[in-house]
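--- STAGE predict ---
source: upstream dedup step, 1 unique chain passed
mode: sequence only
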Amino acid sequence: QVQPVESGGGLVQAGGSLRLSCAFSGSTSSSSAIGWHRQAPGKQRELVAAISSGGNTNYADSVKGRFTISRDNAKNTVYLQMNSLKPEDTAVYYCNRVLYGTSLTFGPWGQGTQVTVSS
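--- STAGE serialize ---
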């Protein structure tokens, strides 16, 4: 199983933007739905956005209209553009293969990337 590698996190002020990247080695990721998840301190990991192999997307209500998930299959990379960031978006962000339309994941988790939004 290929472990994803997340990057792009950082410290940003409320209202700012970040773009996260999720890279998989090998071509198998292009046929998989991929989800971005986040885990805040003391909370369970939650799915915030997912993209199917065909490019369909869905979002958690908390990020709808602010976050955009996209994929570049040629680069085996999935992105999460995050705009209008809020302090409650602070979390470690992870990506993984998902069963599209569900919260089911499969494969190993990566290290994640920390996003901190200051007020």
